[in-house]
Amino acid sequence: MRFRNPAGHAGLLNNLVSLANTLAGFFESRIGLFARESKTALVHLLLLAGGVIGGLLLLAFGYVFLLVSAVFGIAHAAGISWVWIAFGAGVLHLLLALGCVLFAKAQLSKPMFKASVAELKKDREWLKTVDKKNQSPS
Fold first, then answer.
1. Measured distance CA(81)–CA(17) in Å, rounded
2. Residue 61 falls within a domain, yes or no?
3. For the segment 110-124, what is each residue's pLDDT rounded down to a tens digit?
4. What does the CA dihedral 115, 117, 121, 122 come to, rounded to 10 degrees?
5. Within 13 Å of residue 102, how many CA atoms lie on the same side as its CB?
6. Has residue 132 been placed in a domain?
7. Does residue 118 lie within any of the structural domains?
8. In which domain, by residue range, is 22 found?
9. In contact, 89 and 67? CB cutoff 8 Å
10. Which helix (H) or strand (E) holds 14?
11. Using CA of residue 29, residue 35, residue 38, residue 39, what is the dihedral sign?
């Protein structure tokens, strides 16, 4: 019984052409799948972004209405003009915003990736010593 070669006896060139055609078909199907899924993913991300933006917008409106209600409630309870209470709330919010900015500035001044920077410094020093050893006469 003769051994049968499943690839046939077409030769190297025909086998390479067949391999190229098979790979092209494989990549074409994967690219088509990626294109279809990327459209679906884009729609999904747009819906997600719309939900987040809508939620943040409604949160902002709720915050404003809550502030206005608090200003008028405090003004009514204290017997003071609402203008002065609103002015105080505005100053308080500006001071809180300034505090947030100062906090963020303090966080920016702290170095990040301390261990990585230290490791890179050690690597540079090691490279300098290697260069000096290679330049010294043997």
1. 87
2. yes
3. 888 888 888 889 989
4. 20
5. 6
6. no
7. no
8. 11-80
9. yes
10. helix 12-78
11. negative
